[in-house]
Design goal:
Strand order of the largest sheet: 1-2-3-9-4-7
CATH superfamily: Jelly Rolls
Strand content: 35-45%
Largest sheet: 6 strands, antiparallel
CATH topology: Jelly Rolls
Helix content: 10-25%
Structural class: mainly beta
CATH class: Mainly Beta
Number of helices: 1
Low-confidence stretches: none
Shape: globular
CATH architecture: Sandwich
Length: 128
């Protein structure tokens, strides 16, 4: 059974200015996520259906406050709460936030591919 401390999980850049510690363990990505208040990654999701993350996430918010927007409704998660986020969402960070999160790797990779493509386009000057 794999196990790792925070510093043993590889730090990976998801998009410029946003890095996370995560690793794939048997088809499930285990991540230690941290995001600053006000972070908005919505432009990075533009290539996905309705501009929304298509991965499901299960986790525990260690600190902070996030709002999950599904388009037809919003849910707020606060520090100390476990959560399940359905596919088809956008997240905003109302406070500096840290979470332990579990995501099916195949679903996450589809989202990350779109994020990497958007980041490359921004770097090349193709997207504002």
């Amino acid at each position: 059974m794999p196990c790792a401390s925070r510093d043993e999980l590889p730090l990976q850049e998801v998009a410029p200015g946003y890095s996370s510690r995560f690793v794939d363990w048997g088809g499930m990505t285990v991540g230690l996520e941290a995001a600053p208040a006000g972070m908005d990654a919505s432009t990075m999701l533009a290539a996905l259906p309705d501009g929304r993350c298509q991965a499901r996430h299960w986790g525990y918010l260690l600190s902070g406050r996030i709002v999950v927007d599904y388009g037809d409704r919003q849910e707020t998660v606060t520090a100390g709460q476990a959560y399940h986020i359905e596919a088809g969402h956008r997240i905003s960070f109302e406070e500096d936030s840290e979470a332990v999160e579990f995501t099916p790797t195949d679903e996450l990779e589809l989202t990350l591919a779109a994020v990497r493509e958007a980041a490359a386009a921004q770097a090349a000057g193709g997207v504002d």
